[in-house]
Design goal:
This protein is an alpha+beta fold and 297 residues long. It is 23% helix and 35% strand. The protein folds into 2 domains: 1-163, Roll (Thiol Ester Dehydrase, Chain A), CATH 3.10.129.10; 186-297, Hotdog Thioesterase (Thiol Ester Dehydrase, Chain A), CATH 3.10.129.10. Strands 1-2-4-5-6-3-8-11-10-9-7 form an 11-stranded mixed beta sheet.
């Protein structure tokens, strides 16, 4: 693994721009998929911007306090993930990659005064029936102590390994078979608007056209703009935020995109292990948007 420490976290939209240019003929990178990439990026001594955390909390419905929301480090570190995807040895381009799953393991809460050492790498490249899957691994330490780890599963549709492989196809699912449609009324019902998602895009820095531009969304095959998967992941937690353990594992599997505007049924069920969640289309509950589980580590 070749690790590069950067002075600051890069600008996300600049990294998206680099990824888009990489698709151009002649100047772009021709990628030959042979195995796991070996390039990682990180930044040491990251201090949190209270205004940025506040904007994120306001856009997701999460609380603002001395402890940052469980999902906040995703948006903080995401530019590094896109930079890893832009390295020449990465097996596919970030443009068009689909975020299928996200697992966060928090070993203790991150506070607003912590100085963070962040590192992002890619691992576990494997075949999927629709292309290739890879895990983006984000690790955060405070004074040498691991405090937060994330595994984000991304799918490149149509991508293939350059040679034969013994690896079995991975379904990409975190939880196996999807849960049945709940028979009761939802715990809550959300109205999700393009304005809300633009607010999240501004706060998170992720202004990918599929989220903020009708034309951009249609260019990628969507009928209208769609909500960010990690907006949904954060909004799910907002319903039970006061009951999130200090040491927690939070897994989310994204199924069908939330096409805007939307009405979404939010289902939260308590169990001995923690919480199980579903997001479904309110007018057609057979359409599953996301399934998630929150457990104590």
């Amino acid at each position: 693994m070749t690790h590069h420490d950067l002075p600051t976290i890069p600008n996300l939209m600049s990294e998206y721009g680099n990824a888009a240019r990489d698709l151009l003929p002649v100047v772009g990178t021709k990628r030959r998929v042979t195995g796991n990439p070996t390039t990682s990026y990180g930044v040491r001594g990251v201090t949190l911007d209270p205004a940025h955390v506040a904007a994120y909390a306001q856009a997701t419905g999460l609380r603002l306090g001395h402890v940052v929301p469980l999902t906040y480090p995703y948006v903080l570190s995401f530019p590094l993930a896109i930079k890893v995807m832009g390295a020449p040895d990465f097996p596919f381009n970030a443009v068009g990659a689909v975020h299928l799953t996200n697992v966060i393991e928090q070993y203790r809460p991150i506070t607003m005064t912590d100085s963070l050492d962040i590192a992002v790498r890619a691992d576990n490249l494997r075949p999927h029936r629709k292309g290739l899957l890879i895990d983006m691994i984000t690790e955060i330490e405070v004074a040498g102590e691991p405090v937060w780890r994330q595994t984000s599963g991304f799918l490149a549709k149509g991508a293939r390994l350059a040679g034969p492989t013994d690896a079995a196809e991975d379904s990409g699912s975190l939880f196996g078979e999807h849960p049945p449609v709940p028979t009761g009324t939802p715990t809550g019902q959300w109205r999700v608007t393009p304005a809300q998602i633009k607010k999240y895009a501004q706060a998170s820095g992720d202004k990918n056209p599929i989220h903020v531009s009708a034309l951009g969304a249609k260019a990628f095959g969507f009928p209208a703009t769609i909500a960010h998967g990690m907006w949904s992941a954060a909004a799910i937690l907002a319903g039970v935020e006061g009951q999130v353990p200090d040491s927690a594992r939070y897994g989310v599997e994204f199924v069908k995109p939330v096409v805007l505007p939307a009405r979404v049924g939010y289902y939260a069920e308590r169990s001995e292990e923690g919480w199980a969640f579903q997001l479904r289309k309110a007018t057609k509950p057979t359409t599953l948007h996301a399934v998630a589980k929150l457990e104590r580590l």
